[in-house]
Design brief:
72% of the residues lie in helices and 1% in strands. With 524 residues, it is an all-alpha fold. The protein has a two-stranded antiparallel ribbon. A hairpin with a 4-residue loop joins strand 1 and strand 2.
């Protein structure tokens, strides 16, 4: 494909379009050198604050690009293509980059507030500056225009995540978690690469923009090979997002990793993998499904979307039922993330008959709300675990009497995770449920409702501990550091605002997003 196309080197205007990623890379290199040169007596927390500043600067470049694409008089969906469309800067990528950067900023602030108390972390500077290449990897995945670029971003995110998980060098659980994460991550990457090789073999191209014409032609002759390729892709990404039945690694890894890293994996790593699924599926399977036009029965594409919905249903049911007996908070939040991965897969798999832009806006809205409630819950956990000396559910006993405002914030996070009014999580789940109902996939609606009801038991067990239990830990002092407090109250405030007024954010996403221009590569 693309015979005769010459790939020009990056120009200075191209470099400006990649300013968010290049900004993080420059700050990363600066901090690595600074960590080597600074005397040991200088606190490494300064590196953490520079990390936060670099992330905010990168977010500023993303916002500038979003505003410029609209203020220049261009229609929504205008795409900037770099390096032969292997890297695209569009509104979809920019929106997801803002989510990833926000999640990384909150993880860095959480680390600033808790790293001094974690005696198992010997190299504190690494905890901060390694978040930067991980965030770059997630951003590359959001802007990928071909399979090679996507895989580079995936591996950059994965490799740095392996190191971050292993930073608690004095903890045997961290070593075990890192080993399990490397093994499962390697298997996941191998599955993804194997599936990509099938798509390349069937189409003769790694460019996502070529798939819409090449895959329908290949489907007539090689449907079995197409099934194999998509099976391995879905299985590989299911491991990355910790969707059942590929989720067994998540509770162990989350428990062993530093808490800010667990929060990063739960939000940014999961969100980046889901974004990659969106990019690939809607540029490949969509055009060999009933929603891709052209008429006629197209079983391969429809089966891909059905597989995503089945995976979503399994994740919701397995995640919620497995969490019922869980008393370790990190493991409980990991299983909650499994269930939420199922909810996030629903709008991706709703192309049973057709696709519309509200699917994607619902996905982005839910991902942002999931970021707030998950980061907030992990931030409260850092406070409780420091006071109690462990990460068990019983550490929350009597929290309302020891720290009423922290308990109130945790109630907000729990209500949002459970999907109850007045919280952002209520509308996030409601929009996805209504989307599934409008697509007439009623069996999935029933599973969403049942899994939500099941989740009430373990979510409300947290509230029961805070308000209706007391223990010897009741006398332990609750201290909330300034960075951790910022995370808690930013997240709680955001959830309350989105629970009262979800419309402005959803309308803004829909106003700037065009599914034809932003999601389909080469059609802008």
């Amino acid at each position: 494909m693309h015979e005769g196309v010459s790939f020009l080197p990056l120009t200075w205007p191209d470099m400006l379009n990649m300013a968010p990623e290049l900004c993080l890379a420059a700050v990363f290199l600066l901090l690595v050198v600074a960590d080597l040169l600074l005397p040991q007596k200088v606190s490494r927390l300064s590196i953490g604050w520079v990390t936060v500043a670099g992330l905010l600067a990168s977010a500023g470049f993303v916002v500038y690009r979003l505003i410029q694409l609209q203020d220049d008089g261009r229609e929504a969906g205008q795409v900037i293509e770099l390096l032969g469309a292997s890297y695209v800067v569009d509104q979809f990528a920019s929106l997801l980059k803002l989510v990833f950067l926000a999640g990384t900023v909150l993880a860095a602030l959480m680390a600033l507030g808790s790293v001094k108390q974690d005696k198992d972390i010997t190299d504190r500077a690494e905890l901060f500056y390694l978040l930067l290449p991980a965030a770059i990897g997630a951003m590359i995945m959001a802007s990928s225009g071909n399979l090679v670029t996507l895989y580079i971003g995936l591996e950059l995110l994965s490799i740095t995540s392996y190191v971050l998980v292993a930073l608690r060098r004095r903890s045997s659980k961290s070593a075990e978690a890192a080993f399990k994460y490397v093994v499962t991550g390697g298997i996941s990457s191998a599955f993804i690469l194997f599936g990509m090789s099938y798509l390349y073999g069937l189409t003769g191209s790694v460019d996502l923009g070529d798939f819409r014409t090449a895959l329908p032609e290949a489907m007539a002759s090689y449907p079995a090979l197409m099934y194999v390729g998509f099976f391995f892709l879905i299985a590989g990404f299911a491991i990355k997002i910790a969707a059942a039945p590929f989720h067994a690694w998540a509770p162990d890894v989350y428990q062993g990793a530093p808490t800010p890293v667990s929060a990063f994996l739960a939000v940014v790593s999961k969100g980046a993998a889901l974004t990659a699924v969106l990019r690939i599926v809607y540029n490949s399977a969509f055009f060999i499904s009933g929603g891709g036009g052209g008429g006629g029965a197209k079983p391969v594409g429809n089966d891909v979307y059905l597989a995503l919905l089945v995976l979503a249903a399994a994740a919701m049911l397995v995640g919620t039922t497995a969490a019922l007996r869980q008393r370790q908070m990190k493991r409980l939040l990991a299983l909650s993330g499994v269930a939420n991965a199922g909810y996030l897969l629903v709008p991706i798999g709703l192309n049973f008959t057709s696709v519309h832009s509200s699917n994607i806006s619902e996905f982005i809205f839910y991902l942002f709300v999931y970021l707030l409630m998950t980061m907030g819950a992990f931030a409260v956990l850092t406070v409780i675990s420091r006071a109690a000396g462990h990460e068990e559910l019983k550490g929350f006993s009597g929290l309302y009497y020891r720290a009423p405002w922290t308990a109130a914030a945790m109630v907000v996070f729990v209500l949002s995770l459970a999907g109850l009014p007045v919280s952002g999580g209520f509308f996030a789940k409601l929009f996805i449920l209504m989307g599934a109902a409008s697509a007439k996939i009623y069996w999935l609606v029933a599973i969403m409702v049942v899994s939500s009801v099941i989740s009430y038991y373990f979510y409300f067990s947290i509230i029961r501990q805070m308000f209706m239990r007391s223990s010897s830990e009741e006398e332990s002092e609750i201290r909330v550091s300034v960075p951790t407090g910022i995370v808690i109250w930013l997240c709680a405030g955001g959830i309350v605002v989105l629970g009262l007024m979800p419309g402005p954010l959803l309308d803004w996403i829909q106003a700037i997003f065009s599914i034809r221009g932003d999601l389909f590569i080469g059609m802008g």
